[in-house]
Amino acid sequence: MIKKIISGGQTGADRAALDVAIKFNIDHGGWVPKGRRAEDGPLKGKYRLTETQTEDYRERTKLNVIDSHGTAIISRGGLTGGSKFTHTFAKVVGRPDCLIDLSHSEEFEAALMLKSFIIENQILVLNVAGPRQSSLPDIYADVKTVLEVTLYLLFLDARQDNLTRAYLPPGPIKEDFPEDMKTCIDILYRDMPLKTRMFVAKTEQADISTLYFIFLDYIRHRVGFDTENKLLLQNCAAWIEDDCTIEDAVMAILKQFKHELEKDHILRLVQ
Questions:
Q1: Helix H or strand E segment including 125
Q2: How far apart are CA 102 and CA 269, in angstroms?
Q3: Residue 214 contacts by C-beta under 8 Å, 6 or more apart in sequence?
Q4: How many domains does the chain have?
Q5: Are residues 91 and 118 in the same domain?
Q6: 150: burial class by Cβ within 10 Å (0-12, 13-18, 19+)?
């Protein structure tokens, strides 16, 4: 499984990679031009990137290729600009790179390609590159989807899908329509048997993807996201202080549920 995701912090593909890493509690980093330069202004402090000594984008591109085990370049159409330079430099220094053109491959097929690339090259630190938002407005969402599906495929390969049957409540899933985070947490606490609550509490933060893929469909339906619970989605967006998809909201709920269980169940073990 990937241990770290790095990128140059630019809008579009770079930023999507960092946001996926943060969402899944995967270590993230990389190099960013001096002044945390990006096309939408200085990169926010929540992104733990290191500044280079110059404002030259090519310098940070080189360092990110060198500091990773392999680079995924995800685009839609032929490579241009920084993406083309990334591919060329990876070849010069002999680092593996995976070119994914979403104009020729659907997102699931792209995720299969990326998963194979990660496994074949034993990649622990993955560098992600691709177009910026201004040149390809949909690339952020495209890259985010490809990376999240790739993580799911790696999860399935590890045969951790068997945990789903062991820890989900039995029977049909009831659908409620809570409007805020606290009500969601209360519902999940009532639903989950003690062994499940202990499992969630004791799972390492770095393994949050395991919990996410186990509980994603259950939480989606249980809190009404499958029937467009817009009030809850808005509350979750305010909670994480950013725009979010339903899947992002599920992760926010799961992280808060885990946080509450850690206080309750781990404290109980200590006592």
A1: strand 125-129
A2: 49
A3: 160, 163, 164, 167, 168
A4: 2
A5: yes
A6: buried
The label of the residue with tokens 């392999």 reads 70
What domain range includes position 118? Answer: 4-157
Residue 142 structure tokens: 């495209």
DSSP state of 75: E
Q: Which of 157, 191, 217 is the last residue of a domain?
A: 157
Structure tokens belonging to residue 204: 């390492």
Structure tokens at 54: 């110059």
pLDDT digits (tens, 9 = 90+) for 70-87: 999 999 998 888 999 999
For residue 63, give the 3-state DSSP assignment.
helix
Together in a domain, 130 and 183: no
DSSP H helices in 94-207: 107-120, 139-157, 162-167, 181-191, 194-202
Residues 6+ apart with CB under 8 A from 66: 93, 95
Taking the whole predicted model, whether its pTM rises above 0.70 is answered as yes
The helix (H) or strand (E) run that includes residue 16 is helix 13-23
Q: What is the pLDDT of residues 87-103, one digit of tens each?
A: 999 999 999 999 999 99
How would residue 268 be classed by pLDDT, with cut points 50, 70 and 90?
A: low
Q: Which two structure tokens, joined as six digits, stand for 80? A: 């241009």
Half-sphere exposure of 187 (CA within 13 A, CB side): 21
For residues 252 and 126, give the distance between their C-alpha atoms in angstroms, rounded to a whole number: 24
Residues 113 and 168 in one domain: no
Integer Cα distance of 115 and 112 in angstroms: 5
What is the rounded CA–CA span in Å between residue 21 and residue 5? 6
Rounded distance between C-alpha atoms, residue 219 and residue 88, angstroms: 44
